[in-house]
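Good day; I would like, with your permission, to put a structural problem before you. A protein sequence and the C-alpha cells that stand for its backbone fold form the material at issue. The record follows directly beneath this note:
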Amino acid sequence: MSAQYDLPGLYQFLAQTPEQGLRKMFVDGKPMTDAHFSLLLKVVRAGHEPEFCGFAEKKDFPKLKFSPGETKIKEKFWDDCFTTFKSRGILNPSSAKAA
C-alpha cells in the first residue's frame, strides 16, 4: 500500500520541519493524538530515510521503548498516520512509474 507513496519525501518533510510546526499541523485527536505524534517522532529520529521507509511500508517499528499510550495505539498507528498525512496533503504519490 504505502509503496505507492513518496515515503522518502515524507521522511524529509518530517525530519526537517520543526517539531512545534508538525504538532500544530497533525495533532487534532482525529485520528492523530499526542501519543501518535510522539511515536512518529521516535520513529523518524530512530534512523535514517531508508529505515523510516521500511518501517512505514511494513507498518513496523524500530526497537523503541513505548509509553503506555503508545502501546495502545501501535496496532493502528500507521493507518492513522497515513490518514492524517493524506488529509493534510503531505503524502504525495510516488513519482516512480511502473514499466
In short: The first helix runs from residue 7 to 16. The chain has a mean pLDDT of 89. Residues 15 and 44 are 7 Å apart (CA to CA). The radius of gyration is 13 Å.
